Amino acid sequence: MKLYLSGPMTFRSDSDWNYPAFNAAAAELREAGHDVFNPAESFGGKTSLPLETYLSEDFRILPTMEAIAMLPQWKISKHATLERFIMRYMGKPVFDVFSGGILNPSLPEPWEEAFLTVREVMAEGLKKHAQDSWRFEPEDNHLDKSARHILTAKLIRDENSPPDGENHLRNALCRLSMAVARRA
Prior knowledge:
There is one protein chain. With 184 residues, this protein is of the alpha/beta class. It has 6 helices and 5 strands. It has 2 domains: 2-105, 3-Layer(aba) Sandwich (Rossmann fold); 110-183. It starts with a strand and ends with a helix. The mean pLDDT is 87.
């Protein structure tokens, strides 16, 4: 499997940029038969290039990978979080890497699920409603519609009809997100 190896680099105070962990994991994964892109091997090990240089490499390489493998403590890295999200957005598998090159499917982060849910609801909404009409609705309208969806989901759940209730919760999340966006 073509794997992109991701994890924290810049948090290191000892200036090794976590390269030993990246290199050890890459070696173990390669030994297990995977084709691994290890960012610690990029740019000749240079760590002082502009952020745009590293991001453009990510955007070039990530779509060519089959999956991403996350090193421990990836959550403390904004860059690793972005790499993971890009792969999830493309529908590609995300794995956690453990010592010995063992890959375990990574559980989705709640914020990732929320973002992808809002994206899906927005896409469905654009098919039914005038494009971008929500942008002109006041924040209170979004809050009112969110409350309606939450109450409807509660009533439906009480009647044991989970799929419909889930759809209302998805719409409530979207409306709450729009209220926040409207306020910003």
